[in-house]
Amino acid sequence: MQKYGCTKKIYLHNGKNNCALYYNFNHKVNTHRKTYITPHHTQTSRSLCECDTQSSNYNKDTGMKSVMQQFDDRTSQRFEEYKERLKEKRHKRKEERDKNIQKIIEEDKREKSLEQKIERGCLRCGCALGGVAASVGIFGTIAVKELTKAAITAAEIAAKKAGSAAMVQAAEAGVQALIKGLQEMGISTLGRKELVSYFTAENYTNAVHINGLIQTEYNGTSCISLSSGSVPVTKEQFCTWWTQNFVRAKDITGKQLSANDFIKKAVEKIVSNAKGVAGDAADTATKEYIKASTIAAESTYASSQIAIIASVVTILVIVLVMIIIYLVLRYRRKRKMNKKAQYTKLLKA
Q1: What is the SS3 assignment for 193?
Q2: Quick one: DSSP state of residue 335?
Q3: DSSP-assigned letters across all residues of 21-86
Q4: What is the rounded CA–CA span in Å between residue 193 and residue 202?
Q5: What confidence score (pLDDT) does residue 75 get?
Q6: Confidence at 3, pLDDT banded by 50, 70, 90
Q7: Who has greater pLDDT, 341 or 13?
């Protein structure tokens, strides 16, 4: 078959059970607008034109039938192999996709379980904190009441101790002031005994009793009775004091004074001075005990303040933990949403 521009033929060469297909293209070249015909070689072998492939003349050709059958078999085999490979690839891709989907589902379940556990933990923590708050409210009130009672009891005991201790210190100071005043009168002993053995916290303010003791001890001396005679050594100091003060008092007043009245007034003056000293000592002791009680109260308040600060810090820590848990839950939720988006994209792919 010859056409303008090209000639396409199929040559069939008989060989030993083989048939080869050859395509020969002959081009017709137009150069410088000059036409010429290329000479053709006369074919001595059998040739088959492309337009005649459907001819029934070749149905009886066993070689051609064999070639066509081999071509069909190989083509069918290759198509089958291609289908098998495509099927295997699709199966592998499906398995990978199923694995990825299963992995995403398992991760989603784990994350969901973790979120549920965290939420339950937060719920339990909230319940526990509520119980702690209720316990603090109940037991805190009881503790405050008990502390108030203890503080009142301690204050009462401290007041009693302060009063009794102040009275003791005041009495001691009064006794010492009384003894000092009597020693200034020249009286160091009574009945050959020390003055400490006569005066206590109960009788140091009894001026009548003290005056009686002095009158009994010194009333018969020559200096008081203004009689002649020697004075014992133990009473010389009293007589010296008596002479100086009694005579001076008579000179100042210009009146006649009795010895008993003079001694009584002197004793009353000493006792009054002792009472003043005792009062000052009691005030000082009371102030000291008040100061000690104040320091104790401040220390108690400081300990309570430390407890309050510790409670506040604990509450802040708990609040911080709750915020962290909230942020973790929020992060997990966002991550879960991203995973679901990826899963949706994977399913749509």
Answers
A1: strand
A2: H
A3: EEEEEEE---BTTB------PPP-S-EEEGGGTT-GGGTT-HHHHHHHHHHHHHHHHHHHHHHHHH
A4: 19
A5: 92
A6: very low
A7: 341
Question: Would you kindly state where each structural domain of the chain is located, as residue ranges?
Answer: 1-58, 155-304
Could you tell me which residues come within 8 angstroms of residue 238 by beta carbon, excluding any fewer than 6 positions away?
185, 186, 187, 218, 221, 223
Q: By C-alpha distance, which of 345, 177, 201 is closest to 277?
A: 177
Report residue 315 as tokens. Answer: 């509450």
- Amino acid identity of residue 217, one-letter, is E
Which range is least confidently modeled, 33-37, 126-130, 219-223?
33-37
**Binning pLDDT at 50, 70 and 90, where does residue 215 land?**
confident
Chain centroid to CA 13: 99
> How far apart are the C-alpha atoms of 258 and 275, rounded to whole Å?
26
- 244, burial (CB in 10 Å: exposed 0-12, middle 13-18, buried 19+): exposed
**3-class secondary-structure state, position 1:** coil
pTM of the complete model: 0.41
